[in-house]
Design a protein that fits this description.
By secondary structure, this protein is of the alpha/beta class. The chain has a single domain, classed as Spore Coat Polysaccharide Biosynthesis Protein SpsA, Chain A, CATH 3.90.550. The protein has six helices and nine strands; from the N terminus they run E-E-E-H-E-H-E-H-E-H-E-E-H-H-E. It has helices at 36-46, 60-66, 86-99, 117-126, 164-173, 181-186; strands at residues 8-13, 30-31, 34-35, 51-56, 74-78, 104-109, 132-137, 157-163, 191-196. The strands form two sheets. The chain has a seven-stranded mixed sheet with strand order 5-4-1-6-8-7-9, with helices on both faces. Strand 2 (30-31) and strand 3 (34-35) form a beta hairpin. Helix 1 packs across helix 4. The radius of gyration is 16 Å and the shape is globular.
C-alpha cells in the first residue's frame, strides 16, 4: 500500500487492553452492530483521510479475526510493546504513516466514538503546512486542564493533525501514556485549535458506555 504527495494518513491507536473498563480490548466493543475499531476507521476515511494505519496490541490476533480491517485504505500494524504505554503505539503508527509518504498525519483514538466524519474533515480543512491542528470539544469540560496560556481555558484533544515534518519528532518525544503532550507544549506557537460541537469523551468507565448507543 502506498500514498502520493499531499495525502493524509491517519494513525488509529487501538492497542489497549481496556483494563479500566474491564470488557476486553476497546477495539472490539460493539457499537450499533459493529466493532468500535470498524466504526473509527470509517469515520477517518469518510472524513477525508486517504489511508488509516490501525495500531493493535492487546489480543491483536483476535481483533484482526473479528473486525473488518482487511479492506482498501486500511493497514494494520501490531505493536508488540503495547503494554509499555501509548507512546510505543504512536511511534509504530507514525513510522508506518511516514513510510507511506504522508504529507500530514492524523492521530486518533479508538475510544472516542463520539467523533464523526465532519469533525475529521473540519480538522483537515483547518490544518496548515508546518503546523498542528488539535481538537477542542464543546461537550468535554475544560476545567482543570492546563492550556498553553497556563490556564484551564484551552483543552488540547484528539483527533489532531500534524504536518509530516513534525509528526516524527512528536512521536519520538512521546513517553509512556503521555503521548506527545510535552512536544505540543514546547511548540505551542505552532498549534491551531479547532472547535467541535460534539462529544469527544474517551470511553474509559461504565459511566461512558452511553457513547456506544
Amino acid at each position: 500500500m502506498s500514498t502520493g504527495p499531499g495525502t493524509s494518513v491517519a494513525v488509529l491507536l487501538a492497542a489497549g487492553a481496556g483494563t479500566r473498563l474491564g470488557r476486553g480490548p476497546k477495539a472490539l466493543l460493539p457499537r450499533r452492530g459493529r466493532s468500535l475499531v470498524d466504526h473509527a476507521v470509517d469515520v477517518l476515511l469518510d472524513g477525508g483521510c486517504d489511508t488509516v494505519v490501525v495500531v493493535l496490541g492487546a489480543e491483536a490476533a483476535r481483533v484482526v479475526a473479528e473486525a473488518a480491517l482487511d479492506r482498501p485504505g486500511v493497514q494494520v500494524v501490531v505493536n508488540d510493546d503495547w503494554a509499555s504505554g501509548m507512546a510505543s503505539s504512536l511511534r509504530a503508527g507514525t513510522d508506518a504513516a511516514l513510510g507511506l509518504g504522508a504529507a500530514r498525519v492524523v492521530v486518533s483514538h479508538v475510544d472516542q466514538p463520539g467523533t464523526v466524519p465532519d469533525d475529521v474533515a473540519r480538522l483537515l480543512a483547518a490544518h496548515r503546512p508546518e503546523r498542528v491542528a488539535v481538537s477542542r470539544w464543546s461537550d468535554v469540560p475544560s476545567a482543570g486542564t492546563t492550556g498553553p496560556d497556563g490556564t484551564g481555558t484551552t483543552r488540547w484533544a484528539h483527533p489532531l493533525v500534524l504536518d509530516a515534518a513534525l509528526a516524527g519528532p512528536a512521536a519520538a518525544s512521546a513517553r509512556g501514556d503521555r503521548g506527545a503532550r510535552e512536544f505540543l507544549r514546547e511548540h505551542a506557537d505552532l498549534i491551531d485549535v479547532v472547535e467541535h460541537p460534539g462529544d469527544g469523551r474517551d470511553l474509559d468507565t461504565e459511566s461512558d458506555l452511553d457513547l456506544l448507543s
